[in-house]
Structure formats: structure tokens, C-alpha cells
Amino acid sequence: MGKKHETPLLDELKKGKWVSFVREIERAAEKSERTEDLLGQVENSYRDKITHWKHGGMAGVRGYGAGLVGRFTEFPEKYPGVKECHSMRVNQTSGFFYNSDILRKIADIAEQHAGGLLNLHGSTGDIQILGVWQAEAEEAFQKCAELGFDLGGGGSDLRTPSCCVGPARCEFANYDTLQICYDMTQAFQDEMHRPSFNYKFKLKFSGCSNDCVAAASRSDMAFIGTWKDKIKINQDEVKNYVKKFNVQKYVLDKCPTKCMLFEGENLVIDDSNCVKCMHCINEMPKALRSGDEKGLSILLGAKAPLVTGPRLGMMLVPFYDVLEDSKNDYEWLKGLISNMWEFWDEYGVSRERIGELMQRVGVVTFLEGIGLEPIPEMVNHPRGNPFIKFTDDED
Amino acid sequence: MPEEVKKKRITDIGPHDFHDYLPPVIKKNYGKWAYHEILDTGSMVHVAENGDKIYTVRMGSPRLVSGSFVRDLCDMADKYCGGYLRFTTRNNVEFLLDDENNIEPLKKDLEKLGYNVGGIGNVVANIVHTQGWVHCHTSASDASGVVKAVMDELYEYFVEDKLPSKVRIAFACCLNMCGSVASSDIAIMGMHRKVPKIDSEKILNLCEIPSTIAACPTNSIRPDTIDGKQTVKINDETCVFCGSCYTVCPAMPIADSLNDGISIWVGGKVSNARTKPTFSKLVIPFIPNDPPRWPKVVEAVKTIITAYKNGAEPGERVVEWIERIGWTRFFKITGFEFTKYHVDDFRLAETTMNYSSQVRF
Q1: Closest chain B C-alpha to A98 CA, distance in angstroms
Q2: Among the listed residues B108, B106, B112, B150, the one whose alpha carbon sits nearest the alpha carbon of residue B128
Q3: Nearest CA in chain A to B10
Q4: What pLDDT was estimated at residue A393?
Q5: Are the folds of B18-113 and B202-248 the same?
């Protein structure tokens, strides 16, 4: 097969040891003719040092305001195959677990109804099928739906929640990240498919404070697994680790609160001063395990730079007993989320993430609005200046 | 009545239940894993309380993959692990095996197909990244190409465990930051450097003026009138080239083939281990776009990795190493220039200054 477009610059990126995306686009083009024009368009960008995708243009499926992201080339005559090149966000499974049967069927859909290219996965977590034309979007969507896969979020809505591998394959998981991610996604289908928020809202679930889905740096509400009681110590395994490496130097001395010490050969932990940072457990997974009283912390307001600067998640709820609440269909959590969305709806402005709203109105006003009390876990330290606005309700 | 109307349309069913795709050994030991051990950079084992084991073989992926790539994975999964596989948040592929004897044959087969097995332990993990010129309208740079060039150069650090700790690299092609790169050991980010060009002919048709004004983080956009027609004007003095206005208003394009490029940031971290999560900090404000392989970007990343490898103590993440030796020395060791752009002048700028007499000479 002759090449439709010469791609000398992209060809340079087929060299080298790391698996090449250019080769992947070419392989997709072998199955889906339109993708030859994607190669041409990207080569054009490499030549011009600028993107050639147009801003704007609508794409979607009936009844949904999200799930299909519209994309159109600036050069429809030159690259007709990507005149439309929408991406369909297909809601991934919790923990990104699949089998070969379902992945082949999804690949079939990508080849038959799109450009034969996928993102596994998009940054938020969705499977993205690239190169969809509006005329076939409905059929592609329904084919996914027949496999039991709905579309994901997009625009000013609840974005597709995602989670770490959790209890499926990790001993560090302090709660069932996969189940709550699935349950919350099911509970908020309407909020995902029909954008009605001020801006995006993200939920991410990590089973421990290693935070493998980077929840606390990018999701408006981050759920980070933790525990309240004592770290469980297997002293025999501690001794085995002591034989292998300098546990004093690399574990105890690096504990942020210095809450560990050796009494003879026995490791002793002052759990009342442990901040659940995971360092010691990471280093000695055979010897140390989190306690039995497990749950999660909720951190609020993380986001990327736009519009008023990046934010990390702020401690909002130190301990939430998710297992107990899940027995009541997450009544407490859904109440908290609903309070937040109402406050955000009432006082937020367009393109204002909830963390930015909290910053603008002040944390205390925000807490009053959503029905939580200020507690010391929320701050690094108390106020250091005397500009206190006393209110009249003080006696 | 047409066929499609008779057929019931499926909506709002949510994602497929993950339980359907868990391998039997995971189903059996769900929530009952006792510990794990890293076997090498391409494989690890998780051991359940009852002694059951699941082996994971990890390979890198360019994230942007073809149907044929997916079929390759499926063939491997069928041959070696009952068809079960998963992906990671960093876009790796993980094969889930219950037979230890299949690890090496699987790795060999993957390598034969040209795939990269590795990414576990004290390594440069797969680079999470955005769409770039391949699929995005706001990008200041390509994403996949830079990532490919950097990973080619750092390949040895993906397949061999020889760094003091793990190094997480991430790439975002503009500061919309879809890749949420800002908490990475090394973050590579596309930058615009010129004010948006206002298309006053089209702005009223394409944009809402109030939301365009509200999109600006520095209040640099004001209403204006040209020839009796409503438009906006930009204060060049205060615009920070973020592109937020373009995101809401297509009539304010900001991409510029001569002036767009890449910035480099270091010392971010999402894990709470030892130290709290933190954002990456600016190292190089701007490197011009230089496709197809961005050699200066690759060189800068390599310089950081080499300095870190030589200087950090075992177990130290990049930020912990830099905070121990100080930023002054970091700039000295790496040879990067400290400029006026490195001093923060945005919202939390004041909190970033050194309020002490502590310096290293």
C-alpha cells in the first residue's frame, strides 16, 4: 500500500527503542482509511510547529450533552478523512480490568466506526475512541452500550470517576476503591451525561495515601484510604528486613513524625503520632500492615492551573467510614456531595471549580455552606495574624 | 416504523461491572492480599493471605494505540493468562498471570513484538501525557512526539532499576493541563508566549463576551467596541498567555508557530510517603518547539535525571533530594539559569520567598 501522505518528520519518531505512536497511527490507517489523513495532518503540524485542529464545533449523541468531544481539522479539503475526528469517551471499568474478548470487541468498534485508534486511557480515565464522525456516533455508542459500556463525562459535568487497583490486587487498599467508584458512577449517571455544573467536577478514589491515581492533585473530591487504629507488626518479618537493609536509616529515620523506634530487636510504633504516610509500610510490606479500623479521608478542591491557579486537595473529612455508609447506600456521602453541589450551584460562577469557590468565599464560609465544622486537621497551623472578623453571635 | 426506532435505545447504564473481568485468583483473594514483591522491573508478585499468588508483567504503551495493538495484547493475554489484563493510571499494560512459568515466555514474546517490558521499581515510569498536535486544538506543542523522544533517551531507566527512587515524568501540551502534570518529579509543559489575537469579526458570533472576560486569571480582558461592534481588548502588560480565554472563546487564538514551546518543572509528588504532596517547581521557563525530536528538551530531562542519580540518597524522591541540597545548588549542578521568571508573582507568590537567614555557601 502506497502512502497517501509523505511523513518524513514523523518517520523520525519511528526510530528508537520506545514503542512508537507513529507506528500505531500507521497500523490504524491500515484498517481505517480516514486515519491516513490523520498522519498527513500531524505531519503538517510538525512542519508548521502549530496545531491544525479547529476550535469549536458540536458533536454528540441524542439525549447526552457529554461523551463525544468534537474535533475538526482546519484543512478539510486537504485531509477529508479527519474533516471530523471526534473522540468518543467510553467509561472504563473500575481499576481498568478487562479481558481479551471485550477488548477485541471494542477494537472492532474503533476500526469499523472510527479511525481505528484508541487512547488507553484518557487522562481522566475513559477509553477514548478517536476519529469518530458524527453520522456514525449513534451507532458506535449503541454498539458500546450493547457490550455494557456507557459513555463518560465531558464539559461542565461530573467527569468520569476513576480509582486505583485497590483490593483487587493491592494489600495497601484500605477500602474498596473499585466498588465505590462503580457505585458513585452509577449513582450520578445524569450528572455525567447532561452537563449542568459551573465547570467540571472530578471524583477519584485511591486506596491509600500513596495515591496511585493522583486523586489529591487533580480531583475536586479525592478519597484517600486510611486507618485509625494501630499498624500491625510482624516482628519476625521486621527481623528479616533488618538482615536485608538498614531499617533504622531508611525506615525509622525517614518517618515524618519519628513515631517508630526499636526496643531491642522489636519495632515499636507510637500510633497516636502516626500520620498514615505509608512510608514504613511501603518499605516493609511483609512486616507492616495498616490497622483494622479502615476508611478514607476526603480532600477537597484539587485542580489544574486554570483559571486561578493550581490547587492540591485540602483535608476536609479526616475519617469517613465508607464500609458502614455503603450499607445505607452511601447516604452520608451522597448528602455531603449534594450539599456541595448545591452551594456551588448557588454561589459559584461560570468556570469556577469548587476549590476556587472555597478560596473566593473563604474556607469557613464554605464549611458553613456545606454543613461541616472547622477542625484542626484542616490547617497546617492556626491563623498567624490578628485580623479577626468577630461576628455578633459571639457572647 | 424504521428498524432503529423499534429497537430499544440503551442509555444511562454506566460502566461495565468490573467484577466480570477479574481473573479467578483475584476474585478469590479480593481484599485478602498480604504483601507483594518486585521480581524485576518487568514483573512483580502479590501474595494472598492463603498463599495464592498473582504475577503481574508490565509493559509500556504510547497510550495512543491502534486496534492492532489491542489485538496483540489480547493474543498475549489469551496465550499466557486466560485473557486477563488491565491498564494502569500511567497507561501501562499489565498482564495478570497465575503461573510463574509464563512470566519469561510472555516477556520474550512481548519484546519480539517490539514492546517494552519494565516500569516497576526505582525506574522512570511511563510518561503520562496529553493529546498534543495529534488531537488537541489548544496545544502549544505536540505531546506524543516529545514523550517518545524522551523515553527513547531514558529507555535504560525504564528497564533497569538504577535510580535512587521512582521518577514520575508527565507531559501536558498546555496549561489546561489535561495530564495533571503539576505534581510530577519532572513535568514537561507546553507554553504560549504571545497574547491571543482577537478576531473582532467573529467574536460576537462565536463567543459570549462576559464569560470570555471572566475566563482571565489576571483580569486582562476588557469589553471594547470597534466600528460600533462589540468586542474585547487585552491588556498586554498583564496577560500571562495562559489560553484560558481561548478555551471559552474560539475567536481568541493563542497558538503561535514561532513563539510556542516547552517549559520544564521538577520536584512534584502526589504520594504522602515521608513528605506531603507538592507541586513541581519551574526549572526552565522556555525551550522553543523543535520537532520531530525536541533535542533540547530531551537533554534537559537527561541532565536532571543524571544529577538526581548522582546526588540523591537511596529512597529520596527528586523533591527530597533538592530540598536537602537546596535550590541554589540544584541550579549550580544542573547548569540551568535562574532568571526573573523563577520568582513567583502569582496568587501565592509571597509564600514562596525565603524568610530566614538560612543559605548554603
Answers
A1: 5
A2: B150
A3: A145
A4: 77
A5: yes
Question: Which of B115, B246, B277 lies closest to A55 in CB terms?
Answer: B246
Interface test with B, best of A32, A43, A55, A191 (most B CBs within 10 A): A55
Residues B110, B153 contacting (CB under 8 angstroms): no
Looking at CATH, the fold of the domain delimited by B18-113 is given as: Alpha-Beta Plaits (3.30.70)
Choose the weakest-confidence range: A55-69, A255-269, B264-278: A55-69
Q: Domain A162-226+295-378 is of which CATH architecture? A: 2-Layer Sandwich (3.30)
Segment B304-346, tens digit of pLDDT: 999 999 999 999 999 999 999 999 999 999 999 999 999 999 9
CATH fold group of domain A8-146: Alpha-Beta Plaits (3.30.70)
Chain B contact for A258 (CB, 8 A cutoff): no
pLDDT the model gives residue B169: 97
pTM of the model: 0.96
DSSP classification of residue A285: T
With 0-12 CB in 10 A as exposed, 13-18 as middle and 19+ as buried, what is A148?
middle
What does the block give as the cell for A131?
476519529
- Pick from B272, B286, B298, B301 the residue to mutate for testing the A interface (most A CBs within 10 Å): B272
Give Dmax over CA atoms of chain B in angstroms.
Answer: 84
CB contact under 8 Å between B62 and A21, yes or no, is yes
What percentage of chain A carries pLDDT values higher than 90?
Answer: 96
Q: Quick one: CATH architecture of B124-191+261-352?
A: 2-Layer Sandwich (3.30)
Measure in Å the smallest separation between the Cα of A141 and chain B Cα atoms. Answer: 9
